[in-house]
């Protein structure tokens, strides 16, 4: 065995031989003047798998530095780590860089962990023994001893992935020691030694670190797919259970169905006394643009203000003046109606619709708050709908954010990134579902049932047919604000405009005044334009949700 000059067994089964990444390209110019004349290493592989290295470096010029190989590609999912520890002597270790001390000669020693790989019936020691220096090396020599007989040996010189053999590699006569030599190593080039030992010779094993790759982070297999499905069922089921127990309207025992006229003893009497703004909030659980628009019309119909349409030319923008009616009993207004009334006039007796901005915009938030407080005071909701929506939506957003962070963590450290997606989906479902979490009480559900019956009546073809002619102007006008809520303004405006007095078309209504040469036949178009313009003015304040 002593006569063997080079044993070029490549051990192609080794995953480490086929993998590896060079830190720099061969032939890179020296980073400092000088060279290493001799780099002599004594390597001892111990039974615990730790490789102990003693190194003596003779050099000219400024003390050089060595970049150790501390990481290579092991397989598709992992990197292999080489840990260099316990450095002592004429050198310092910073990260993976060794810097020599003094001048001329430096002696130091250190331990290497993770250099042994079990491969079936053999163990392979692979270490980048010499090289990686910032200056060229004239001669590098390495002697390796181990705890058992050598089974094979080989060496390579050059770049980290080089398959070119070194100058010499030979075992001694005992078969437990190997000597390697390489004449001439360029800047950053390395001498790699590979030795095979019998299986079980050491307790060494590679140190692996999972490498992040998007395809691996979200691996779909039986385990991850089943876990994802189970987690989705659990989380989405929990969201559904929350809605079932917290977000559903209370059931109404024997609640009424069918059309309700809103007339009692010949007088207007909406079901449950619900006013237009309240109906809008009751139906969709939102205080929005249409609720305010309908309330303005309702205040006019009930005699708190008058709507005066302004004359205009063909291409002029339409405008209306809202006029405060004297002697109106403001104490009879609901809190949200009084807030809106004050926001409109703000101490003025009349205000053009086009001028509703400034203080009006800032006070609309009070109208919205008053509407929400009102539906709670009426006993239709146990809590303010906007507060309930905000709370559940916020929880959903927080759960989504936690899912994003969890997905990143799972994807970075494991292959179970898909599980984090389940949390994201559940959080998004809760955030969206939060819009449906406000729940009506039994009283609120009953009021809604009656309101829908009223809507059915207003939508019926014979609505108002049984109303005496003398009462139609007032009664049909009282229906109109509700028609705004129920999106049937055109139909009821046409019904109102069809009312005649003394066999001829009326010129105005008691609550709506048109310009000269205007009569009630134009009311339907005027009313449609007024409601659209009013809704636009309100939504432009950004205090209410646009429809």
UniProtKB/TrEMBL annotation:
It holds the Pfam family DUF2207_C. Keywords: Membrane, Signal, Transmembrane, Transmembrane helix. Residues 36-195 form the DUF2207 domain. Coiled coil: none annotated. The chain crosses the membrane at residues 223-244, 392-412, 418-437. Residues 268-494 form the Predicted membrane protein YciQ-like C-terminal domain. This is DUF2207 domain-containing protein. It comes from Streptosporangium algeriense.
């Amino acid at each position: 065995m002593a006569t063997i000059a080079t044993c070029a067994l490549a051990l192609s089964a080794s995953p480490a031989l086929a993998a590896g990444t060079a830190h720099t390209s061969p032939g890179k110019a020296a980073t400092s003047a000088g060279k290493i004349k001799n780099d002599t290493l004594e390597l001892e592989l111990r039974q615990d798998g730790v490789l102990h290295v003693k190194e003596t470096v003779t050099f000219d010029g400024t003390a050089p530095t060595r970049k150790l190989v501390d990481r290579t590609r092991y397989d598709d999912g992992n990197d292999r780590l080489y840990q260099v520890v316990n450095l002592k002597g004429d050198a310092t270790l910073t990260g993976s860089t060794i810097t020599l001390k003094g001048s001329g000669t430096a002696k130091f020693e250190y331990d290497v962990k993770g250099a042994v790989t079990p491969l079936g019936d053999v163990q392979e020691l692979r270490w980048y023994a010499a090289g990686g220096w910032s200056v060229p090396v004239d001669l590098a020599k390495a002697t390796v001893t181990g705890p058992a007989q050598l089974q094979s040996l080989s060496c390579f010189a050059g770049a980290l992935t080089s398959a070119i053999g070194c100058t010499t590699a030979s075992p001694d006569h005992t078969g437990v020691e190997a000597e390697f030599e390489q004449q001439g190593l360029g800047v950053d080039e390395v001498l790699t030694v590979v030795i095979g030992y019998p299986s079980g010779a050491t307790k060494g094993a590679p140190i692996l670190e999972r490498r992040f790759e998007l395809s691996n982070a979200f691996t779909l297999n039986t385990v991850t797919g089943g876990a994802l499905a189970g987690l989705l069922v659990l989380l989405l089921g929990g969201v559904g259970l929350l809605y079932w127990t917290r977000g559903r309207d209370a059931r109404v025992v024997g609640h009424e169905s069918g059309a309700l006229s809103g007339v009692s003893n010949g007088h207007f009497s909406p079901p449950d006394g619900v006013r237009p703004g309240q109906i809008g909030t009751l139906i969709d659980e939102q205080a929005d643009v249409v609720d305010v628009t309908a309330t303005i019309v309702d205040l006019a119909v009930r005699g708190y203000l008058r709507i005066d349409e302004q004359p205009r030319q063909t291409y002029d923008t339409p405008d209306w003046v809202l006029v405060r009616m004297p002697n109106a009993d403001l104490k009879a207004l609901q809190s949200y109606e009084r807030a809106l009334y004050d926001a409109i006039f703000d101490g003025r007796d009349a205000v053009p619709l086009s001028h509703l901005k400034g203080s009006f915009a800032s006070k609309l938030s009070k109208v919205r708050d008053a509407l929400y407080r009102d539906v709670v005071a009426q006993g239709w909701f146990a809590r303010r709908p906007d507060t309930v929506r905000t709370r559940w939506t916020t929880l959903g957003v927080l759960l989504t954010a936690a899912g994003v962070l969890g997905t990143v963590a799972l994807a970075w450290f494991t292959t179970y990134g898909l599980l984090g997606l389940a949390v994201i989906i559940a959080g998004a479902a809760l955030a969206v579902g939060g819009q449906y979490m406000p729940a009506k009480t039994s009283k609120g559900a009953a009021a809604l049932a009656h309101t829908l019956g009223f809507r059915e009546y207003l939508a019926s073809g014979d609505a108002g047919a049984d109303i005496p002619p003398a009462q139609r102007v007032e009664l049909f006008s009282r229906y109109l604000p509700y028609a705004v809520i129920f999106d049937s303004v055109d139909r009821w405006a046409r019904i109102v405009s069809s009312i005649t007095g003394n066999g001829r078309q009326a010129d105005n209504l008691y609550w709506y005044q048109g310009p000269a040469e205007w009569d009630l036949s134009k009311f339907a178009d005027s009313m449609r334009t007024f409601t659209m313009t009013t809704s636009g003015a309100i939504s432009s304040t950004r205090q209410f949700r646009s429809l």
